[in-house]
User: Fold these one by one.
Assistant:
Number 1:
Amino acid sequence: MPPETPLSTERPLLTIAIPTFNRAVHLAELLAVLEPQLAAYPQVELLVSDNASEDTTPQILAAAQERFAAQGIPLVIHRHAVNVGADANFVSCYHRARGRFFWLCGDDDLIVPGGLAQVMPHLQDATGKPAEVDLLYATSYGFREDYQCERQTDPFGRRFHTIRSAKTFSMVVNIMFTFISGIIVNKERLESLPHEDPTALLGTNLVQLAWSLPLLLQHRRSIVLWERPVAARQGNANGYSLGRVFGEHLAGNLARLLPGRPDLSAPILNFMLRRWFPSILLDVRSAGNETLQLGEAHSALRQTFGNNPRYWLFTYPALAWPLPLARLYTRGTAALSKLIYMAHLPGFWRKQT
């Protein structure tokens, strides 16, 4: 593996960091999609942190580094001597990233062609200086086989919104704060604010909240990109306990990172219970996936959300009712959830020209 050395002493505008482990095929596809995009933006650093992969990942990275260097594309590769775990690898990416802005991208997700061109104008002003943007939410669409054939666009024809209210931004992003590939953070500003080191969240499977929520707490101005520049691969879920991570751990991290601000944390938790969990649970049950123990999930979620009526009204039926009835019921509650979501965000649904 080539030595890990930055290609320039000047701080990049943006670091795209890819934590990877034993996903050589997916990583190669992501690098291939990024390569022509990065050629147009020399102020973007690409960092790959290999978590001691045992497949052909090192060979793919060595070839990519040689190819990228020929085009002047900054690519930094770090390889851990042993597998340090997903959380610690995410934190390693954060600490090693030199960019003023930081974008952690899953190795099985894709920044689609044209996606970087949608992002970059919002990270710098007309003079080329870093923009005063705290967070940028890059919306996404799910795909299973071919990201191009399955590509989706915003149904309302929106391009982007600038948001100055932290509460509004929390309502728009909601549970997607936990999706690593969808949030770009102003690392330079975060470094100037009081905040815990991300290592404090190791073991929660949600360390990514350590660099986004402090900026939400001290929010000035953020951007929502509606054009779906990210394609999120479906069916590659990690083997963690869904109930525990999105119950005890998520609620605990929100209380820790957004102290005294239920107006910011409640939209995240309530949307998860109304819409995200029912959808995930029905997908798991329909696929016959036994990796999620439904009884264990109910126990973990009830312990955290048993006093929240949304758990019993929206999540529990998808978890425990007979599958045909749960599907029918959840279709109705999904429509209700959508109406609730739109009612709380008036003015966000008009087509932009």
Note: DSSP finds twelve helices and nine strands in the chain.
Number 2:
Amino acid sequence: MSVSDATAAPALGAGRPTRFSWRSRLLLAAAVAAASVLLLLLIRTGADDVMRWDFRFGPSFDRRLRTAAAIVLAAFCQGVATVLFHSVTHNRILTPSIIGLDALYVLIQTVGVAVMGARFVDNSDTIGQFVLQTAAMVLFAAVLYRWLFSGRFASLFLLLLAGVVMGLAFRAVSEFLQRLIAPSDFDALQIKLFGRLGSVNTELLPIATVICVLVGAVIWRRRRILDVLLLGRETATSLGVNHRRELTLSLVLIAVLVSVSTALVGPLTFFGFIIATLAYQLAGDWRHRATLPMSVLLGIAMLAAGQFVLTNVFYAAGTLTIIIEFVGGVAFLAILLLRKGTL
């Protein structure tokens, strides 16, 4: 099964010649990402407000290493899931959060705090709760896909609409419960409702890594089929691709990646959108062999560099995800609504 670039590229608006090959661009992005991670790991600001190289192994280095690992996993999950979601929906305005997984995570945390109090937050980073939260979000997505794709009027747009409606319902219930809990419990809950990169449980990293490697291997093996899906349902079917099966499999893999990322570091609604949009502009190739790794590398560079600057310059590392969400919202309005014809 093969599709010529001359046929596919003009249809995707990516047929313009580029000065640098996609491999060169990936190497440059990898160098920037590696440099950002090394800066985060090896430079530390001391009590005298001076940044110095720090090669000593100890609690401080372990904490930075844990943050770097969480950054790599979050960038991988969000970048791959968003690019894959854009490919199967043929719409770069949407993000995987439209399915309602972020809202379900918020509901799980809110119900837990409403029932158990602040101690639910204290125990929420255990392996058991991580597995249960991830399984709950994946199960929700699987039931939703099964329900909407097994009927006579199965439709991707019906799935997205159902995801929006259920996400709104989850948020409404969460907000109602948040008004009923004690103020101290509400303050503890807020910690879990924003992305957190510096407070990840080290025991969760191996589990998340194994899941990401397995899902990434499946997606990479099917990257050529994903390229064909970009051509549309009719064209993909005529080329021998089982469109419904590939669509369902892709959505399940997206749900797994988003669930792992959300359970590990919290909701990152617009982060995947930012790095996926930049990857389309900078990859130099419309195919997934370039856009998937480019989105991951850009995500690593953005998170690591942002964490380094906020930690060592502004001493406000906890605000990184809030800034990313704000920048993502602005980018959504500026790029997709005001300049949507350029994507």
Note: The chain has one domain: 18-342.
Number 3:
Amino acid sequence: MIEATLWHPVAGSEALGASPLPVRLLSQDLVLWRDDAGRARAFTDRCPHRGTRLSLGRIVQHDGRAALECPYHGWRFGGDGACVLIASQPSFAPPTSHAACAHETQEAHGLVWVRLQPGDTPLPAFEAEADPQLRKLLCGPYDVATGAGRIVENFLDLSHFGFVHDGWLGERAQPQTPGYSVQATPTGFVATGCKAWQPQSNRLSTEGSWVDYRYELTAPFSAVLTKLPQAQEDYRDVIGLFVCPLDEERSRVWFRLAVTDHDSSDDALRAFQHTIFTQDQPVLESQQPKRLPLAGGEVHCATDRSSAAYRRFLSERGIRFGALT
């Protein structure tokens, strides 16, 4: 399964503290924990001894280093997954066959990322992370009862603004979506020339205006939009969407904000993003089928260029998790 060779977000970095954290990815249960150096570790959430969930255990010190201890028989596992102690036989040196199943981890964009199988695909890019002029904030997680592809496609869609987000990101009286262009990239595509009429383009606006958008698909389940109101060239918002495919029809979602607004509180910024996504969520969860159809089953129109490009990309890359072919 090609999806297992890709990096996926599984938890916010701040959510991973002093206790083991159970998470799920691609229908597999995992446990996250931090070692002495603060590095995030990820194991399959199953002790190789009797199949107990390691996430029910605790982090202990063993020979001066952190280890994850199984709650059933006290077996201990080091950061690389090696079994370092069998409590009932403390003098026994466990062989490699007794190791927990460890997976690669990275931390970026305020998230812990896991790759279940070796691969050469890098983490999804979020270039705004390195811009010192922009304020960074993580929003989420949101658990959504639909496939990951449905969520990404919705994020890339402009023409629902006037209906789902009437009075917020759009107006029902002005639903038209001007033409835009889509160009392929190594990670997906870029959609440019996107415009949406918004009743208030940002917190400084006093009236509605057309707003320029740029969308980029950075991975099968990650995308970035850049919003630049025409009247204020120095005002730029960048929002990253990062989706964890929990199961074929369940997903977990985070948004990474990189914004010009340095005055609003964290709570205010998160509240706005919460309002927008919870307007989307019931619509997403109502869509049938929950898995994104890659060939047939749904009709399209000219404003669906990004959607068509996204479905084509998934099909060409062999991405099938949460999709129908």
Note: The two ends are 15 Å apart (CA to CA).
